[in-house]
Amino acid sequence: MNALQTRLLTLLALALFSVTVTYWVVTLTSRQTAPMPGAAAMRTPSVEQAATIFGGQLERQANQDVHLFGILALSNGAAAIVSYGGEPAKAISLGSPLTQGVKLSEVRAKSIVIERKGGAKSEIFLPAVPPGPTIYVR
Predict the structure, then answer these.
(1) Distance separating the N- and C-terminal Cα atoms of the chain
(2) CA proximity to 107, closest of 116, 115, 99, 117
(3) What are the pLDDT digits (tens) for 84-135?
(4) What are the CB-based long-range contacts (under 8 Å, 24+) for 94-99?
(5) Which end of the chain is less enclosed by CB atoms within 10 A, N or C?
(6) Could you give the CA distance from residue 129 to residue 126 in angstroms, rounded to a whole number?
(7) Residues 77-97: pLDDT tens digits?
């Protein structure tokens, strides 16, 4: 073997070694592992509901059916955007009935007061404002 053939074989062996090392480096560093399965999203039970297991009584809140979405300050009165019993939200003016036996009694800066049949009054607050940008639409 002459010197030229030895150099060509050495160069070929170096190239083969470089290709093999590159292949394994790429293969081992880019391996995508399967993601861990996520835990099933379950609603956490409330303490009141858990108490019913041991004979406790579940008390229904009086304001559970009423959801306040917004308050409107008008030049000749006030109104509130309210949903009752899972119905779509609608604007209710001061003194108007939400449903049979429930009327809008007061409108405050961050809450409303409803009056139920029999004179029982309860206050419903606006939900907390979520963090982040607010979008205004005209």
Answers:
(1) 88
(2) 115
(3) 878 888 999 888 888 888 888 988 888 899 888 888 888 888 888 767 666 6
(4) 98/66
(5) C
(6) 9
(7) 888 999 887 888 899 988 888
